[in-house]
User: Which sequence fits this backbone?
């Protein structure tokens, strides 16, 4: 018996019956020989961590574009915080921690440079809105490994696709990530807003902080405990209604006082212009795209989609540098 088979047996001994078991995955689009050490979801987690798109998240905006300090969150540190919260909940509920972690680590791979400003900008050039969750799946199915994709399991891709509020994951592990994402970004964005001098703890609605806590640490801890306690004996994942409403109200406060704050968002108009200029230039000059993206077009992919693929994969710094090289004249 291989180590993988021993681990698969152990899952049946310690997980609840409603968990996603590694030996019952719906599998991959392309059949592969199984690893003798790692379960299928472990392999997916490892593939995501070793991917180029995962590494690029360290230079992609979370809330603040090109922040001056070293301690503001990036898309990568947000992802790691989501994974930590989700793993804690999955372990407490005796669900599949490896699947949960793989979904969490991959859920934002499709984010554009400049955060949601980049997403809005690209939406102007596509026949349907550009959605980062759909792009995350496209990254792992089509774009990674020079067009071959990562060939992840169905459950991981389902969780990545459905992590947004409007999504409905097919696994309990996917539901854990869906809520953990909100717990993470609402609270760490408050922390960054305070660091930037835009928010103070006293500005937060008192009825919410009285329930959830008066610090980022306390609020995260409260929500994790509430989620674990509520979901412990159920085959659903969620929060008690009063905590769900408090998190929703806190999120609404953040949209009003931080996410649309003119100080925090003062550079987004410029960022959207950069995205637009890059898109129009690459549409006119496909030969400027890297070879692997030109090959996607040669293989029959729509030109507009491939240009979006390339721009969406850029980091903030690379988008600015590329725009400077294309549009700013150099000294003789």
Assistant:
């Amino acid at each position: 018996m291989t180590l993988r088979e021993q681990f698969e047996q152990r899952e049946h001994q310690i997980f609840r019956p409603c968990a996603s078991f590694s030996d019952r995955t719906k599998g991959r689009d392309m059949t592969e020989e199984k690893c003798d050490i790692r379960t299928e979801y472990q392999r997916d987690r490892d593939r995501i961590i070793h991917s180029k798109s995962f590494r690029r998240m360290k230079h992609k905006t979370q809330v603040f574009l090109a922040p001056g300090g070293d301690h503001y969150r990036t898309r990568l540190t947000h992802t790691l915080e989501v994974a930590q919260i989700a793993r804690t909940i999955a372990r407490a509920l005796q669900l599949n921690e490896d699947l949960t972690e793989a979904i969490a680590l991959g859920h934002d791979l499709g984010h554009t440079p400049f955060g949601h400003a980049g997403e809005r900008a690209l939406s102007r050039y596509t026949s349907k809105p550009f959605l980062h969750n759909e792009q995350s799946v496209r990254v792992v199915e089509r774009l990674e490994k020079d067009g071959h994709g990562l060939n992840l399991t169905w459950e991981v891709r389902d969780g990545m696709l459905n992590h947004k509020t409007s999504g409905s994951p097919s696994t309990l592990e996917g539901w854990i990530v869906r809520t953990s994402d909100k717990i993470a970004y609402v609270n760490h964005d408050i922390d960054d807003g305070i660091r930037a001098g835009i928010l103070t703890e006293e500005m937060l609605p008192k009825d919410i902080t009285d329930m959830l806590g008066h610090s980022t640490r306390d609020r995260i801890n409260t929500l994790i405990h509430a989620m674990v306690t509520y979901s412990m004996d159920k085959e659903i994942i969620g929060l008690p209604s009063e905590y769900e409403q408090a998190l929703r109200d806190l999120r609404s406060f953040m949209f009003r006082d931080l996410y649309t704050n003119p100080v925090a968002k003062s550079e987004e108009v410029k960022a959207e212009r950069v995205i637009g200029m890059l898109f129009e230039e690459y549409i006119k000059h496909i030969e400027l795209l890297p070879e692997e993206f030109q090959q996607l077009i040669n293989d029959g992919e729509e030109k507009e989609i491939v240009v979006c693929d390339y721009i969406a994969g850029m980091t903030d710094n690379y988008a600015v540098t590329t725009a400077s090289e294309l549009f700013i004249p150099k000294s003789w």
Q: What stands out?
A: The first helix runs from residue 3 to 14. Residues 3-259 form a domain with the Hypothetical protein af1432 fold (CATH 1.10.3210.10). The two ends are 69 Å apart (CA to CA). The chain has one domain: 3-259.
